[in-house]
TrEMBL record:
InterPro entries on file: Epimerase_deHydtase, NAD(P)-bd_dom_sf, NmrA/Isoflavone_reductase-like
The species this protein was found in: Glycomyces tritici
Limits of the NAD-dependent epimerase/dehydratase domain: 6-207
UniProt-listed Gene3D superfamilies: NAD(P)-binding Rossmann-like Domain (3.40.50.720)
Record's keyword terms, sorted: NADP, Oxidoreductase
Keyword Heme: no
Pfam family, any one: Epimerase
Protein name: NAD-dependent epimerase/dehydratase family protein
SUPFAM superfamilies to which the protein is assigned, alphabetical: NAD(P)-binding Rossmann-fold domains
Length: 299
């Protein structure tokens, strides 16, 4: 039986905590509000993870610290570095392994599938932050201070997941309304079911071979239209009507909430195909992506 710390109780963090507990591990989920999955074996702790000394005390005895935390999307350049610095420092202080939940923002657009060996060449604010967070963690690993790995997920699917599909498309599809999409609805993209991301985080935490590198999470390749059509079929909704948001739409919406400006910055990942190769994690850990039906079943 091992002790695991999971910082963050979004859809993936909660799924990760449940999986650790199902394996018989003792799990402590840390969020500012003390929220998280209320299941046997999981202790919920209310704590601001930027308070490094308090976080270190809460993590004493842990074998693994999983960082599944996220700040407000539009504040990443300012708020993510101090949070991630604190979590990394706490893992190092208590001698725990450090597993990060990441994404593919630090990659530029490419003509072929992205692998873990594709160079990180960030050219957006959020991409530069993601690259910085990984490089700092990797430097700590290479210095021998802590074992580090990262699981890089695509656009999330699944109940409660924070993603443009869940935010913009799914609710309108289920109501039979026109859905405005972030990007070209017919461009192939990489989606990640939250349970598959959680399975990858747990597998990495339990492996002796995961450390010192990043891994692409099990990937579902599909277009927004294909995902929307399948969701409608599963839920008995009318055939989806999709239309891409224009830059003008997003600019105008940005006057109501800052998150809309963020879609403009990351448009290169949604306007044309952006596909990820998950071969490494399949071969190393025997993990494969769930079916689209499984990813959409609970929505």
């Amino acid at each position: 039986m091992a002790e695991r710390i999971v910082v963050g109780a979004g859809a993936t963090g909660s799924a990760t905590a449940r999986r650790f507990a199902a394996n018989g591990d003792r799990v402590r989920v840390i969020t500012r509000s003390g929220s998280g999955p209320e299941v046997p074996g999981v202790e919920l702790v209310a704590l601001d993870a930027t308070r490094t000394d308090e976080l270190t005390a809460a993590a004493e005895g842990a074998a693994t610290v999983v960082n599944a935390a996220m700040t407000d999307y539009h504040t990443w350049p300012e708020t993510m570095p101090p949070l991630y610095d604190s979590i990394l420092a706490a893992a190092e202080r208590v001698g725990a392994d450090y597993v990060m939940l990441g994404n593919h923002y630090a990659y530029r657009e490419t003509d072929g599938p992205i692998t873990e060996r594709t160079p990180l060449e960030p050219h957006t604010r959020k991409g530069r932050v993601r690259a910085q967070l990984w490089r700092q963690a990797l430097a700590a690993h290479e210095a021998g201070r802590v074992r580090v790995t990262e699981i890089r997920a695509g656009e999330f699917l699944g109940p409660g997941a924070f993603s443009s599909f869940n935010f913009l498309v799914a609710p309108r599809i289920l109501r039979g309304e026109l859905a405005l999409t972030d990007g070209n609805p017919d461009a192939a993209n990489t989606f990640t079911f939250v349970e598959d991301a959680a399975a990858a985080l747990v597998a990495a935490a339990g492996s002796e071979n995961a450390w010192g590198r990043a891994w692409n999470a099990p990937a579902l390749t599909a277009t927004i239209r294909q995902v929307a059509d399948r969701l409608a079929d599963l839920k008995g909704a009318p055939r989806p009507r999709l239309e891409a948001l224009t830059e003008r739409d997003l600019t105008l919406l940005g006057f109501s909430a800052p998150i809309w400006h963020e879609f403009i910055e990351m448009a290169y990942m949604a306007d044309r195909p952006f596909v990820v190769d998950d071969r490494d994690i399949r071969e190393a850990f025997g993990l494969k992506a769930s079916s689209l039906d499984e990813a959409l079943a609970g929505m």
